[in-house]
Design a protein that fits this description.
Blueprint (H helix, E strand, L loop, with lengths): L1 E7 L5 E7 L3 H10 L3 E7 L9 H6 L10 H16 L4 H11 L3 H15 L4 H5 L7 H13 L2 H56 L7 H15 L1 H21 L1 H13 L3 H22 L4 H11 L3 H15 L4 H5 L7 H13 L2 H63 L5
Antiparallel strand pairs: 1-2, 1-3
Length: 419
Amino acid sequence: MKYKYSALNARNQKKEGAIEAETKNQAISILRDKGLIVQDIKEAAGSDEPTSIWQMEVGGDIHTKKIKKKRLMQLMNQLAMMMKAGINLSMSMQIMIDSEKDASLKKILKEINEGLYNGLTLSQAMGNFAAFPRIYLNIIQAGEANGRLDSAFEQCALICKKDLALSGKIKSAMMYPVFLIVLVIALIIVLTVFVLPTFKGVYDSFDGELPGLTQALMAFSDFLIAYWWLVCIIVGGIAVAFYMLKKNSAEFQMFLARVALKVPLLGPIMRQNSLARFCRLMSTLTDAGIPIHKAMALARDAVPNKFVQTQIQAVINDVQIGITIHEAMAKHPVFDPILVSMIQVGEESGMLGDSLVKMAEMFEAQTDESTERLTESMTPIMTVVIGLVVGVVVVGMIQPMFGMYGLIGNSGSSTTPTA
């Protein structure tokens, strides 16, 4: 069987090629013996071996599958507990395999265990699967080097836990405003498509000219009823164009990242969330013994906002030429002065990890407060918006009726007999 691979050599240079082996794990073992760290390996095109029945059952190549963050956190916690209990890695992996119910994850664990038997380290075996983020692999690799795999698993679980907590708070904060916006749109559609047309016959019987507001509402109603399909096409086209630009255009991604940080109420949440995640990951990585520039690069990649990522990269570039972290951060307004000061204290005292933990906790607390303010402020704002929408429609419907009463009054006066 022929396999194509990409790997890193001892000088951290990327190497690509093909190798003959009976199984994928054997191919990885051969490459490892040559001093290469495998990053990606797959069957060469035209290979005689058919796709495995297992892969067909689980719906594709397990090497590209993702694991839900909650399950990944549970996996790391379980491994940490077993390692702390004195169970060796091989036995821990076998216990995990025997107890796992998810078919895809079970297959992943089996292949990792096979890799361990073939001489791979755990980080190398896990590195063949997209299910495990690169930051986890580096922490586990550091744990292998210092003999503290249990601590490495705990750190990975903590990262996952904090990430889930932050993401959950952001999603919870956004659900209510989104619900209110959808409610307003639905209200506009119901009023213009179903309510206004019922008054059309009444308005048509008026001899006088309808008020401008009523004419505008009726025109909008007629347009939605007649061209709803066109509205759907336009909205769908905008959504698809937005998705494609966001996915494929780095410039558009950067534009959105900049705009997101400037949006009232939402911008502070995005910035605090990014800085909280950066500080939390940096503290975990430095405590794991990962070099500072590598830790910053890994933490940078986990930050959700692209603009903040570019600012962190600029800091990394300065640090690599000998500038201290706090001096490099001071050049960029996205980093709070208090963060710069705390990192300076940490650098000068040799307790950078502790300073980063404190800042992570502070930014996480600020994120909580900002999300609560967003939720609280959206209620009166959207209430006013809903009131304005309903008020405009109601006024537009009632205004012609006063005109009708005026016409009836004038008609009655003109037909009154004279004495």
